[in-house]
Design goal:
This protein is of the alpha/beta class. It is built from eleven helices and ten strands. A three-stranded parallel β-sheet has the order 1-2-3, covered by helices on one side. A three-stranded parallel β-sheet has the order 4-5-9, sandwiched between helices. The radius of gyration is 19 Å and the shape is globular. The mean pLDDT is 95.
Length: 301
């Protein structure tokens, strides 16, 4: 198999490249070459001048590959769905509008526009609508923030219900599903997360505590107190959303379609342990805006 990866040196792209190499495939990566992970010597590297997340760039790339590539895979997002999807919702839920020829506008619309651009050029494109993506090489600062905070010890805010489902996908499970799906003819949109109930807020945080040396104490805080305090939960409590209004079913999606086409979800402990091991080896990535400020943490506790 000859695989062309648009990107390949950051988070998901790195996982796709490594998974493909492990399968013995020939891999070419097309990117700016301006930083990130150093590609292995066996990967052919082609550099381009610019890249952007706008749908029109997906459209241009897909159109150039028509007649040259047999399959096309696009890593999309659960963000393409209209708010309010109920618990048990799946790929049938209505999406936001998107324009395949648009410049960068807003995340959900851009991802949907990217999907439409991919499908226009490759009607059998595989669309991986990923939820939270965790695992080694994460450059978004979500799971790395939790690991770093627990490693510093003391009482840590544990948000909401302990038994609340926490859906995510390990980046390596996403990469494996995508690569195999390209070979086996999987097509169309698929929600890519672990099954609802695979882990919970409690089991996630307990795994983080264990791997970082049990230095931290969980301080459970009711979600209403979090909302009343004005916490920017998406950013300041990375990966957590309250169970209110349009987000009530966000962590309880039905991933049967992905499971039936081969998606496997490794235990949460493996994701947490391997991410912590990567941080120990390569250092803590930039956390960006993620994390709970100390004064807000103390107030909540």
């Amino acid at each position: 198999m000859d695989l062309l990866v648009l990107g390949g040196t950051r988070f998901v792209g790195r996982a796709v490249v490594l998974d493909a190499l492990a399968r013995g495939w020939n891999v070419t990566a097309l990117n700016r070459g301006s930083g990130g992970w150093k590609l292995p010597d066996e990967v052919e590297h082609l550099a381009v001048d610019t890249w952007a997340a706008a749908p029109k760039h997906v459209e241009a790339a897909a159109n150039l590959l028509v007649g040259k590539a047999r399959r096309f895979g696009y890593v999309s997002s659960l963000g393409v769905y209209q708010p309010g999807r109920p618990p048990g919702g799946n790929e049938s839920w209505v999406t936001v509008d998107g324009d395949p020829g648009a410049d960068g506008t807003e995340y959900a619309a851009d991802k949907r526009g990217g999907e439409l651009a991919a499908l226009a050029a490759f009607p059998d494109a595989i669309l991986a609508r990923a939820g939270y993506i965790f695992g080694p090489w994460e450059n978004l600062g979500r799971l790395p923030w939790w690991l770093d905070r627990f490693a510093r010890g003391g009482r840590v805010v544990a948000p909401g219900r302990p038994e609340r489902p926490w859906q995510y996908v390990d980046v390596r499970d996403l990469a494996a599903w995508l690569n195999v799906g390209l070979v086996e003819g999987v097509a169309g949109p698929f929600d890519i997360t672990c099954p609802s109930g695979h882990t919970t807020t409690a089991t996630m945080l307990e795994a983080i505590g264990k791997v970082t040396g049990n230095r931290a104490e969980l301080g459970w805080v009711d979600q209403q107190a979090i909302l009343d305090a004005g916490v920017q939960w998406w950013v300041q409590l990375p990966g957590w959303r309250p169970e209110v209004a349009e987000w009530e079913g966000f962590m309880e999606g039905d991933t049967t379609a992905a499971i039936n086409t081969g998606l496997q979800s490794r235990p949460v402990a493996a994701t947490v342990e391997d991410t912590w091991a990567w941080i120990q080896e390569e250092g803590l990535p930039q956390l960006g805006p993620h994390g709970l400020p100390t004064d807000i943490e103390e107030k909540l506790l």
